[in-house]
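Dear support,

Our group has been running a series of protein-ligand predictions, and this particular one with adenosine-5'-monophosphate-propyl ester is the one our PI (initials K.S.) wants archived with full inputs and outputs. We had some confusion internally about which version of the output was final, so please treat the block below as the authoritative record. The input we submitted was:
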Amino acid sequence: MSNEQQTRVYHPSAEVVKNAAVSGIDAYNALVKEAEQDYEGYWARQARELVDWKVPFTQVLDESNAPFFKWFADGKLNVSYNCLDRNIEKGLGDKVAIIFEADDGHITRVTYKELLAKVSKFANALRSLGVKKGDRVVIYLPMSIEGVVAMQACARIGATHSVVFGGFSAHALRDRINDAGAVTLITADGQFRGGKALPLKPIADEALALGGCETIRNVIVVKRTGGDASFVAGRDLWYHEVVANQPETSEPEWVEAEHPLFLLYTSGSTGKPKGVQHSTGGYLLHAILTMQYTFDIKPDDVFWCTADIGWVTGHTYITYGPLATGSTEIVFEGVPTYPDAGRFWKMIQDHKVTVFYTAPTAIRSLIKAADANPAAHPKNYDLTSLRLLGSVGEPINPAAWEWYYENVGGSRCPIVDTFWQTETGGHMITPLPGATPLVPGSCTLPFPGIQAAVVDETGTEVPNGQGGILVVQRPWPSMIRTIWGDPERFRKSYYPDDFKGKLYLAGDGAIRDKDTGYFTITGRIDDVLNVSGHRMGTMEIESALVAHEKVAEAAVVGRPDDLTGEAIVAFVVLKGARPTGEAAAAVVKELQNWVGHEIGPIAKPKDIRFGENLPKTRSGKIMRRLLRQLAKGEEITQDTSTLENPAILDQLKHSV
Ligand code: PRX
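Confirmed final output from the archive:
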């Protein structure tokens, strides 16, 4: 460990070590060794111990069609059975599965028995509408019990769900329905966030009216806000009506381990989001194993992951992991700042939350809010129920880490900084709370059984202390299986020829500590931005901008932002004259709203600058590195003599 780091190591207390599933660094090392010595044996053991199989598997890893790997392929199981029925069989029927807190503070508790009844009824309803194994169902719902029920019901009947985040626009929803060829859309009339009722069904209607969604036979609508929901006869149905007369039991569909449990669209280097396809068996295994090792889940825990079910974190650590481990979890409809910025702390206090998992952006914004309004500071709340904290979605800066550790965790709770991705299904590099000494800002060491490395452009490992490209050296059970409908894009994006198709390319840069080998993620190495923990492709935003009638050309880059991690900066060439002053400000607003409407509010550029042209080389390539420097307000150090039009740099230097 380098000297600088030595002063900032946080060791788990003897108490934490004693009670942990992985107790002490030797126990961690033993698991790593077990996986190294017999990779398939290690994963097979975990899969047999943690997952209930209807038909036990005899094959473990099948690499014959690499990089299209298969795990446990001849085994059969059902995820919903593993999350619900088996807990009830173990005597947990009356245990609370979900504590739902609505935006207005109203609380609903659902036991495992009740949840199974809800899931079964909705599974039966879907079946009665002709939804079968392998059909795709798009879920466009707010954070709700019905959201979890809908996902579990799809899993129960073997339908493949594709959840679309409720903040995405009609266009984004249409594209995802179209790409997946979905037969059913499940939505709500609206959603409550921060005391406001926002529409959803009208956006769903707009999406379907855009065309390209002809595969949709039914739209099932959850009544939430009582807002406008005009129905198309024969197509649109109320959720409460379709479940009304359904029996409370339903036979699970036993599916092959490789059956696609879900698709989840995420941003990549092109304008088109990719449908990340996940499996059933391998995915479930990792959801359970990480609940046990990373979150060290115990029967009395109250687990709270603040993510939305529209993102992968909400899939693995709301809908599947906590339920598959028979835990009690919080599902929260609202936002951290309503009715005030003490909401998270109040909820931890009220529900006696023990494990709390959130994103650095939320922490940073709550630090700021507590500075501005001392009443919203966590010290005003009793947070002594907490025993473990987690972070996910983006690098956590050491200052935010330390504030979180001291003010939320009372300098008592380890923080697991979990590095992973939509594509990885679950944690990849993360501390284990009772085993790994913590260093703020580092996600520390690979999860047992995950073999990660930092390499150069040729795929050769670089020495510790030297930055490089993060890769995973062996396939793992919960990995992405393919990109829906585009296997070639899968191969090229994740198993590129540069690495002879042998290494999984995460798309992030990383550096390992000289002495400890601890990993620190240094950020994306592709054209993907991370804004408030949300992944956005620069090309997606560029495509949205050039679809506006006034825009001739656009280039989008990221710049570091204290609050959101990265901020979106767009350099735009308009079709007419370059505007200045108030006229420019008006166009900025117009374009921001346009992107919000085309993709969703999370994609709105923070800063839009206009030039008569973009900086290009003589061969016509946009000089993105230069744009990044301009966005950051840095002096231009690179040679601009090859620029076709150096004069435009002055135009692009300043925000409107
Ligand atoms: O850049 C990394 C960052 O988020 C990316 C994955 O985004 P997404 O697929 O939306 O999944 C987010 C939730 C798992 C990664 O490529 N990232 C995620 N977690 C961390 C992180 N960067 C640093 N530290 C983390 N703990």
